[in-house]
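Chapter review. Work through the record for Guanidinium exporter before attempting the end-of-chapter questions.
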Amino acid sequence: MPWAYLFTAGLFEIIWAYSMKQSNGFSRFIPSLITIFAMLVSFWLLSLAMRTIPLGTAYTIWTGIGAVGAFLIGIFFLAEPVNTARIIAAILIISGLVLMKVSSS
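Structure tokens for Guanidinium exporter:
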């Protein structure tokens, strides 16, 4: 169950990152509200996962899910640039996440 908490926390991190962008510096109410709610849920689920998953592993995977997820949201929904260096960076992050998960088993 802790891994499900951690994965879900990562998904909520993606939600709050996207909604923070949409909040335009917290000047738009609904996206700001979504940001705060998603942050709270993400942190809460991360804290539940950290009951059994080591800090370094949980935090690295949580931030990695958020980073790669935000990268993909940026490409597919915000028309952010795609280039070889950015794709390689995302692949390296994913590789690190897989290695972190495998090494913590």
